[in-house]
Amino acid sequence: MGFLNIFIVALMPVLKVILMTGIGFFIALDRIKLLGPEANHHLNNIVFYVLSPAIAASSLAESITFQSFITLWFMPLNILLTFVFGSILAWLLIKITKTPKHFRGIVIGCCSAGNLGNLPLIMVPAVCEEPNNPFGDPSVCSLLARPYASLSLAMGGILIWSYVFGMMRLYTNEGTENETPSETVAVSSTELAVLPSTNAHTISMHPTPSDAKIIKMSAWKKIMQQMKIISKKVDLKKVFAPTAVAAIVGFIIGIVSPIRKLMIGNRAPLRVIDSTAYMFGEAAIPCMTLIMGANLLRGLKGSEVSRSVIIGIIAVRSILLPALGIGVVMAARNWGLIASENKLYQFVLMLQFAVPPAMAVGTMTQFFQLGQCETSVIMLWTYVVAALSLTLWSTFFMWILA
Known about the structure:
Blueprint: H1 3-27, H2 37-63, H3 66-71, H4 74-97, H5 101-112, H6 118-129, H7 138-176, H8 180-193, H9 200-205, H10 209-233, H11 236-239, H12 242-255, H13 257-263, H14 271-282, H15 284-299, H16 307-334, H17 343-354, H18 360-368, H19 372-401
């Protein structure tokens, strides 16, 4: 295939996303008021609690079997690597830009968590539907596209609502509270109280067996106190968010053969449950994309986020991570971790590094009531740039794979 033909194939799904986002943007305008702040909030809750879990559960239950999961084992590791590399680059960005403490969680979230849900679910099947796609017969390609995109959605949702949510919550609390110093002082005074006849110099220079035991106990107390602090800050109800729980349920249904036979298939006794979840799931992608467009409108109103932070996040998500993704996938192929002949699978793995930040980061800021305007500005500019960068990277991915 020529480079221009591949570019057109890559452009089509991105245009679909742009059009759907544009509609969400338009109906959120003050003159239209179909998706104003209150309506957006309610629709966001419906997506969070109903539609997104439905698409995660139904897609995985129908698409993933035990054999296919064994075949696709590298994808969860690949997604984990996108979070790891994104977090490392976020730390560097925070140090360079001297980001305020309360805003660091948002920077880490935007750099580490990509839109692994609705974008792959739209883009990968759309690429397969193009007659000139480099992945072979459109019908066969489309059959493979759904499990790839579904697994991406599920694994991304689990990591976003566990790792990213936990990080954002920790940094939000760190910016508003100052618990650690006082607790550290309390621990130190307790340690001194149990050593009335000794001092720090004596213990360090001439330790006795009883002194060593006391030091071990005090160190253990410090560890336990830190664990208590972290457990107070991490909300397990949010870590096990509806989408993450639904993904786990979908895995179990798809992989466990007896349960699968009960619920999946035209002759399954409980197929009505799966078909109902599938109907709800079909509404998830349009609604998520409409919300994305409405949230981008807030970014036009501006915020106090610095340009250096915005440019840094764009560079991480649109330049550095996609380049790293090529290296990861190529290395995995050379080491025999993924099948060299499965080009569509490799394309999806690379795409996971190139997508813009997850819109769930904006949802999390609504939970915390902190940094909503800043996140909207970041999302606005990253998605504007992604319209071009995602097309170019997708074209390049398909070109090197073809």
